[in-house]
Write a structure and sequence with these properties.
The complex is a heterodimer of chains A (about 110) and B (about 120). Chain A contains no helices and 11 strands. Chain A is mainly beta and about 110 residues long. By secondary structure, chain B is mostly beta strands. In chain B, strands 2, 4, 5, 8, 9 and 10 form a 6-stranded mixed beta sheet that branches. Chain B contains no helices and 10 strands. The radius of gyration of chain B is 13 Å and the shape is globular. Classes of the chains: A mainly beta (about 110), B mainly beta (about 120). Chains A and B meet through strand 4, strand 5, strand 9 and strand 10 of A and strand 4, strand 5 and strand 9 of B.
């Protein structure tokens, strides 16, 4: 049972435009959300996170938005750069209980120069 | 080392054989995780070690899978009598304290192919 879902396996965006990656979750107990970025033949690396007490967190070109009522979060990258081309994983966790992250299936972003 | 190190990077084995995958976490990190990513799937949690506590094995898919962490550092994931469905990238990660809002640092993974 996939508790974190990324329904778009791939996304192509022109350089300089905005990339929007979406993520939905089913478990209302999740209270911390993260995005990881993965290049080929490398492990995922942390990108940005958001606590459930917030609805927006911004770090440079990256902004994560959280809509708790819709159980939806999104990652905005603007302006997109060719170096952003990678697979992006959404992940969620709960503060109590098993200390592990639940990951989505990933979205492959391609930024076209 | 500076990051999480995994070995081997690639492993090809025959169905029914046992395999061992190794993970060296970041020095000083008390928490260690194993995940796997099968083709077209997300990262699937397997097992979690935190300090001297009993590991959380809730993600292990069958009793053919086991893991140990010696001396609170290096970890070995063992898969006995491998099956073709075990083919996946096995990722190890570590974090400083193992708290829920900590970011994980991942290794590059071991690509396991069971023929």
């Amino acid at each position: 049972d996939q508790q974190v879902k990324q329904n778009s396996p791939s996304l192509s965006v022109q350089e300089g435009r905005i990339s929007i990656l979406n993520c939905d979750y089913t478990n209302s107990m999740f209270d911390y959300f993260l995005w990881y970025k993965k290049y080929p033949a490398e492990g995922p690396t942390f990108l940005i996170s958001i606590s459930s007490i917030k609805d927006k967190n911004e770090d440079g070109r990256f902004t994560v938005f959280l809509n708790k009522s819709a159980k939806h979060l999104s990652l905005h990258i603007v302006p997109s750069q060719p170096g952003d081309s990678a697979v992006y994983f959404c992940a969620a966790s709960v503060k109590t209980g098993a200390n592990n992250l639940f990951f989505g299936t990933g979205t492959r972003l391609t930024v076209i120069p | 080392g500076a990051g999480v190190s995994q070995s081997p990077s690639n492993k090809v084995t025959e169905k029914g054989k046992d395999v061992e995958l190794r993970c060296d976490p970041i020095s000083g990190h008390t928490a260690l995780y194993w995940y796997r990513q099968s083709l077209g799937q997300g990262l699937e949690f397997l097992i979690y070690f935190q300090g001297n506590s009993a590991p959380d094995k809730s993600g292990l898919p069958s009793d053919r899978f086991s893991a140990e962490r010696t001396g609170g550092s290096v970890s070995t994931l063992t898969i006995q009598r491998t099956q073709q469905e075990d083919s996946a990238v096995y990722l190890c990660a570590s974090s400083l304290m193992g708290q829920a809002n900590e970011k994980l640092f991942f290794g590059s993974g071991t690509q396991l192919s069971v023929l």
